[in-house]
Amino acid sequence: MEPLPLNLQIQGEGFPILCLHGHPGSRQCMSVFTDYLSRRFQTLTPDLRGYGQSRTSQSFQMQDHLIDLENLLDQLNIQHCLILGWSLGGILALELALKFPQRITGLILVATAAYPRGNHPPITLLDNIYTGLAGIINGFIPGWDWNINTFGKRSLFRYLIQQHTPTAYQYLAREALPAYLQTSRYATQALNQALRSRYNRQADLDQIQCPCLVLAGEADRHITAESSQATAQHLQNAQFFCYPQTAHLFPWEIPQQVQSDIENWLNTEIL
């Protein structure tokens, strides 16, 4: 399949960091990283194929994301870069590092794994009702304590976050909801196909030599902290942090802590 030109946001100046969002997601969901990192680096944040404004009218496979991203780096004439990937974006980051070992100089892997495993409980009708109500109300009044306590903590949000703070719910309203609405069925189909095939690149990770930072939420139900830790253990040069009382969206729960740990790693391993 031909590469798809991706909707792209470029911020800042300096060494490039390619920032890749998860599913459902969009480039806006990465602002918790890019608004901070772009003070010292150039952040390149695309909407992946089938997400946000990178729209497609045909089905595709996960491999097509890699074709698009390689084309993006070639068009921008980027010979070396770091990659920050969240969830699905982290899986794509690993794939790019395996494919272009000389081009990728470091990885920041957030809530992701080379062999992603989850332990999400079955979803009930009441879960969906509470989630719909919490999401709609939060869209109109982001971070409202009454909504958080009445619906949010009983909804599926309880598996995405553990710290039900107004800040986390403001991110959900401002970035997660629009991303969810803009995620195409083709993107969902491509991801589900990869998961059904039992995607597992753990055995290949010893080929990645660049420095890696692996971050996980202790209570992540979508990609467990244990699977993220296993990824770190199989990498040749990795640091691993697991944050207590957080889940899959932990960068929105504890943004300052995550930003601080990323900065310290960059200062120690990269700069």
Automatic annotation (TrEMBL):
One of its GO terms (cellular component) is membrane. Pfam families: Abhydrolase_1 (PF00561). The keyword Hydrolase applies. Keywords: Hydrolase. PANTHER family: AB HYDROLASE SUPERFAMILY PROTEIN YCLE (PTHR43798:SF31), MONOACYLGLYCEROL LIPASE (PTHR43798). Residues 16-253 form the AB hydrolase-1 domain. This is Dienelactone hydrolase family protein. SUPFAM superfamilies: alpha/beta-Hydrolases. GO terms for molecular function: hydrolase activity. Gene3D superfamilies: alpha/beta hydrolase.
